[in-house]
Amino acid sequence: MTQESHGLKRVLGRTDIMTLAFGTMVGWAWVMLSGFWIKEAGVLGSLTAFGIGAILCICVGLTYAELTAALPLAGGEMVYTYRALGQGFSWFVGWAISFAYIGVAAWEGIALATAIDYIFPIPQIGYLWSVAGYSVYASWSVIGMVAALVLLLLNHFGTRTTAIFQVMTTSFLIMIGLIFIFGGITFGDTSNMVPLFTNTKGIIAVLIMVPSMFVGFDVIPQSAEEMNLPKKQIAKVFIISIIMASLWYCLIILGISFAAPPEIRTSGIVPVADAMAYSYGSGIFGKILILGGICGIMTSWNGFMVGSTRIIFAMGRAKMLPPFFGKLHYKYKTPTGAILLVGGICIIAPLLGRNALVWFVNTSAFASVLSYLMVAVSFLLLRIREPDLERPFKVKYGKFIGIVVVIFSVSFLVFYTPAGGVSLKWPNEWLLILIWAFIGIFFALWAKGSYQKVTKQERENLVFGEEYSRKEFTDE
């Protein structure tokens, strides 16, 4: 099987990839959570947390950049881990990172309803049930459900369509964000920048959320087979997109801390919009900010749809998931089965209510850090086992960078346990993880029953294609 016969079309240019990564990273969380970050950690505490997170993500990005340039295949983490650690770890990482992507994508419908309600209040019609103390209404849920259906169709009709959509919405998002930052710094006051620090626990509470804020740069390897870009340029796109997102979050923290006093940025439902309205002295500006936030919702949602569907497709193509997931649409060359699964979850998710936002953020961060750890281990092992693997981009001091990522990732994972002091909550957050694990086991057993025996040579070709398969596994 040749690389071209894998079927995905090479239609993504540099701008497409950059906006895909940046737009996916920034999303909507900065609108909803920046006030919370300052409340928990303080202004400088939040900047410290994001600074540490940015350094980690740049290091992670370097390992991804080397591996993606060497193995530019859909599936990203799953592909690298298969190469270094074998099928079992590969399946685990692929399923974990798909959960990270889907987890963030799933609450975008909830976020969209919240954003629209700020501009045009949505009547609470059709009470359904209460989830964790939040009343879920049909009038709210249907907004997110319809938007999820629209994005499902957008992704179905081709990668080029999603790329154009991403460029347009990301451009508008950046423009609105810059207006907010300008207003906050120009019309705000340094007396609003309190507290500067809270305590170590508060900084850790923000720090464990940071990985989910940067989840998005790693959609680049998921789209590797669709890039029309020299392999060496992939590394630059990785690093530039992470630096851009880091600056964005830091500027937003500074902007909201200047713009309004604590009682304004913590009392409302949408803190950044309230802060912008306060700094400009008009509620109209709060609504304008929300329009930018809506674009952020759509860029993030679209990016995670692309990332999650590509890795599920790659797992299906490698016969690790049922056959339905490994097929492309005959005309649009998009992974129909994966799009239906991810889109279906996004359609259902608004029924969980607004409190699910934090659950999805925390569990997605946990799954992302697990994946980063496995990629770093794979990076180090491949440096030892395949020194002659063609690496169009090679990280300087690669062993040191890889070890740093392993240490950081393990440290972050400890934070999610009771020993770290800020663990994932039972039942809501751990229940989401367990449900996804059971779904994965069900699909794995289904795939095993469907394919019976898959030889190592066959799996090698399915994962890597002829161009990147190892010689010892190639059929004679």
TrEMBL record:
Its main location: membrane. It is found in: Cell membrane. GO terms for cellular component: plasma membrane. It is a multi-pass membrane protein. InterPro entries: AA/rel_permease1, APC_superfamily. The keyword Ligase does not apply. GO terms for molecular function: transmembrane transporter activity. It comes from the Bacteria. Keywords: Cell membrane, Membrane, Transmembrane, Transmembrane helix. The chain crosses the membrane at residues 20-38, 44-67, 88-107, 127-154, 163-182, 202-221, 233-260, 288-313, 334-353, 365-385, 397-418, 430-447. This is Amino acid permease. It comes from Sinanaerobacter chloroacetimidivorans.
